[in-house]
Each structure stands twice: as C-alpha cells, then as structure tokens.
Design goal:
Number of domains: 1
CATH architecture: 3-Layer(aba) Sandwich
Strand order of the largest sheet: 3-2-1-4-5-7-8
CATH superfamily: NAD(P)-binding Rossmann-like Domain
Distance between the termini: 33 Å
Order of helices and strands: EHEEHEHEEHEHHHEHHEHHH
Structural class: alpha/beta
Number of strands: 9
C-alpha cells in the first residue's frame, strides 16, 4: 500500500510518518511538505496542481494534515490561507479522484467553531458535538471550514470516501494567550486542557489510522478528536461557575497531585469537546485523558508523551495577544 502524508515536516505529519514507519513497515510513504525534513520525500507546495499530481501516483490513502495554522494569521496574508487551505485541498481532492484513492482523511480543527465556543456572560459552558454549527472567527477557521465543504462535495459528486477529523490542541508550544501564560505554567495548563480541549498527538495519529480503515464503509463523516472528558452535559452550568468543584466530584485525587506540583485549577471552563461520536463510529479509544495524565504525574512522568517529546516544538505557534479558539 502507498500512502501520501501532506505536511510531513509538521507536528502531526511527522508523527504519522514516524508511526507508520514503526508499525506498518510494509507501507510505502510519500511525505509532502514545503520544508525538507527526514520525514519528507517530496518538497513542494500543494497549491501547485502539477506537483500534487506527481506525488499522487499509485497512492491508496491520503492523510491531508498540511495547513496554515491559526498563529500564521499574524504572519501570512488571507490569500496565503486560501492558497494553502482551500486551493491545496482542492488540488488533492481532484487528483485523488483521478488516482482512484480509496480513503481521504482530512485533518480539520475545532477552531472552525470559532465564536460558537464563547458563551455569553453567565451562560453555561458550551457542550461541543459535531451537531454544533460552526461560526469561524478568522481566516484560518473560514478556510478550514471551506475545505471541509469541498471534501463533502467530492464525496457527494465523485463517491470519494472522505472522513474529516476536527482535532483539538495537540501542539507542545506554550499557549499564545498572554493572560493564560501569566496565570499558569505550561504543563499545568496542558494538564487541565485534557479535561475539555486537548488531545495527545499519539491519539490523533491513531484516530487517523483508524479512520483510513473505516472510510470506505462510512463514506463521509465529521468527527471531533479530543481527549475523553470526565464531565457530562449536565455539568455545563456548574463548570462555568465553579469548575474545581465539579472536577472534585469526578476525580477528587487531582487536588493532591496539583498541590504537590504547586499547580492550580481553573475557576471556570467555557466549553467541552465531546468525542463520543468518534469513539462509537470509528472505534477510536484515546489513551490520554486527564486521569491518565494524573497517573503519569504520580509516577514522576511528564505531561507530554514520548512521541510528542521526540517531535519537539516546530515553532509554528508564534506568540500573539489573541486567545486561541481551538
């Protein structure tokens, strides 16, 4: 089997290639990125249709992770986002149909929900499922949502099997919210985010690999890929007013671990990503959860997995004063 991984020099792309090389050595990997790396076999841009056509020969499965990310809003033009996130995806879809690709796995983002993620003052936290209507707040969200629509169009018009994975945060860099960085240490913040808006990169990889095996059976689908939350939809009001009290009901041992590390819990949580559909329809079971992170910390380990540590920081997420929405 021959697979194409776009964005192979990036966080997720490298993680996919690393994992495929170890766990599926029989697979031939075509790694595509604008930046050269050990995990990239073809250097070029997906906005170039002829380059995409060249890379597509004999490909059975596409993992399309290449993208301009939200932090690039501060460094790239809106046209750059359109060229990469929309035109690049269109080129891949067109050539995938021509090459009779069996599965197209598109890496999207929870950032497509945008302003939907911010509840009004005094309102409950937002329980985010695939049924929630996105309201993108910037060019990043707009172009990722447009790319999702293109994926659906190609499934409907050409029968291409496409699954869209809306991933939450998995990058290792510090948060780009100045206020959050001033209030919490990096590991403290990441640990808390596993409660409602973070996923480990290894779990994202497993979701992609499983999705590729399910794509032909499902045909088309959108899935939130985030760590399994301990919370329930009924907790949304209390999470907004006193998140620590809610957490104590589910995982009371967290307080001892946090006190040992001199960490603190957020007073309020404004949204929770629910991964129930991905677990049910894909059979995906993420390893990393808040409870898992606590057990690792109790054994003296780190919040990040060995895979995340090996990949390291790519420095895509430049610090800005804009809070993230993903």
């Amino acid at each position: 089997m021959r697979v194409l991984v776009t964005g192979s020099s990036g966080h997720l792309g490298e993680a996919l290639v690393r994992t495929l090389q170890v766990e599926h050595s029989e697979v031939e990997i075509v790694g595509v990125d604008i930046l050269p790396s050990t995990y990239t076999t073809h250097v070029g841009t997906i906005s170039d249709r002829s380059f995409v056509k060249e890379c597509m020969r004999g490909v059975d499965v596409i993992y399309h992770t290449a993208t301009l990310h939200k932090p690039h809003v501060a460094t790239h033009s809106k046209q750059d986002f359109i060229d990469t996130n929309i035109t690049g995806t269109l080129n891949l879809l067109e050539e995938a149909v021509t090459a009779h690709v069996k599965a197209f796995i598109f890496t999207s983002t929870t950032s497509v929900f945008g302003d939907t993620l911010v509840p009004p003052e005094g309102a409950p936290a937002i329980w985010i499922t695939e049924d929630v209507i996105p309201t993108p707040k910037n060019i990043y969200g707009v172009t990722k949502l447009a790319a999702e629509d293109l994926c659906q169009l190609f499934h409907r018009n050409h029968g291409l099997s496409v699954l869209i994975l809306r991933t939450s945060r998995f990058f290792p860099e510090d948060d780009d919210s100045v206020s959050m960085c001033e209030s919490y240490s990096s590991d403290n913040l990441k640990a808390i985010e596993f409660l409602y808006r973070r996923v480990e990169v290894g779990d994202v990889v497993s979701a992609h690999l499983i999705a590729a095996t399910k794509a032909s059976q499902i045909g088309f689908g959108k899935y939130i890929i985030s760590a399994t939350t301990p919370f329930d939809r009924k907790d949304t009001s209390a999470l907004r007013s006193d998140a620590a009290a809610v957490l104590l009901q589910y995982i009371p041992t967290y307080r001892d671990v946090f006190e040992t590390k001199q960490w603190k819990m957020m007073p309020s949580i404004d949204r929770v990503y629910c991964n129930a559909k991905a677990r049910k329809e894909l059979g995906w079971e993420p390893v990393y959860s808040f409870a898992h992170v606590l057990s690792v910390l109790e054994r003296g380990g780190d919040v990040s997995s060995a895979l995340a540590t090996a990949i390291g920081c790519k420095y895509y997420h430049r610090k800005t004063n804009e809070d993230k929405t993903g």
